[in-house]
Amino acid sequence: MAGQPIRVVIADDEPLIRAGIRMILTSDPEIVVVAEAANGREAVDAARAHAADVVLLDIQMPVLDGLSALPELRRAAPAARVIVLTTFGERDNVLRTLEHGGAGFLLKDTAPAELIRAVRAAAAGDAYLSPAATRHVVERLATGREAARAEEARGRVAGLSEKERDVLALLGEGLSNADAGKRLHMSEATVKTYVSRILAKLDCENRVQAALLARDAGL
Q1: CA-based nearest residue to 39, from 16, 66, 75, 21
Q2: Is residue 32 within 8 Å of 116, Cβ to Cβ?
Q3: Are residues 62 and 94 in contact, defined by beta-carbon separation less than 8 angstroms?
Q4: Cα 60 to Cα 171: distance, rounded to the nearest angstrom
Q5: Contact partners, residue 30, CB within 8 Å, separation at least 6
Q6: Residues of the chain scoring pLDDT < 70
Q7: Which residue of 43, 57, 93, 173 has the smallest Cβ count within 10 Å?
Q8: Could you count the other beta carbons within 10 Å of the beta carbon of residue 178?
Q9: What residue spans of 85-216 are helical by DSSP H?
Q10: 50 touches 35 (CB < 8 A)
Q11: Which residues contact 130 (CB under 8 A, 6 or more apart)?
Q12: What are phi and psi of 110, to 5 degrees?
């Protein structure tokens, strides 16, 4: 998408929040807000109609909530990357978002610069979890099923090569391809190749799922 602006749809039922997000995003000359939506149904329609690259999706909205809209978005606009805006009220919300291929999580009180970084990362094909969001996700996943989940994760990871496990471990730390490359003395392109191979082997749809699997496996 070199040279093309990142096309974003903002979905939130509160006009003031949409206005604030729009103001932040449009401060970046490479991001354009192509549509706003007040509910999940409008978000699906807008993402499809405007060929969105990224959709910022609130969870609690009328007509169709964000979690219900997410799988529809994946079908209607498969090229769009979805970042969920959440306060992490329920663990099940986080799990459902992961299952349906959300590309990232942001808290609504996130810093403006972080919001822009998240949109850029999603548009580039990466997933993004803010540090605060990562802590919340890990805490919510620490349930009584942790041992069984860890055993399953270790079994899935066992089929990876040593180098692939090294890359996966850095995904679990939330590192970008560039930062992982510096840590492992690899080029960014090489790390990207490893990430694609890891996602395929682990049957993970995106980096978020792979990162959580790495944490479950204790990498």
Answers
A1: 66
A2: no
A3: no
A4: 29
A5: 5, 6, 120
A6: 1-2, 88-95, 98, 131-146
A7: 173
A8: 12
A9: 91-99, 112-123, 131-141, 146-157, 162-172, 177-184, 188-202, 207-216
A10: yes
A11: 105, 106, 107, 110, 114, 118
A12: -65, 155
Q: In what order do the strands lie in the sheet with 128-129?
A: 31-37, 6-11, 54-58, 81-86, 104-107, 128-129
Distance of alpha carbon 174 from alpha carbon 32, whole angstroms? 26
**Cα-Cα end-to-end distance for the chain:** 33
From residue 138, give the alpha-carbon distance in Å to each of 17, 58, 69, 157, 173.
27, 20, 24, 18, 12
Instruction: Render pLDDT for 169-207 as a digit per residue (tens, 0 to 9).
Output: 998 888 888 989 999 999 999 999 999 999 999 988 888
Q: Determine the Cα–Cα distance for residues 196 and 218; give it in Å rounded to an integer.
A: 21
Question: How is residue 132 written in tokens?
Answer: 């605060």
Are the C-beta atoms of residues 126 and 120 closer than 8 Å to each other? no
Using the 8-state DSSP alphabet, how is residue 77 labeled?
-
Q: How far is CA 173 from CA 135, 138, 169, in A?
A: 11, 12, 7
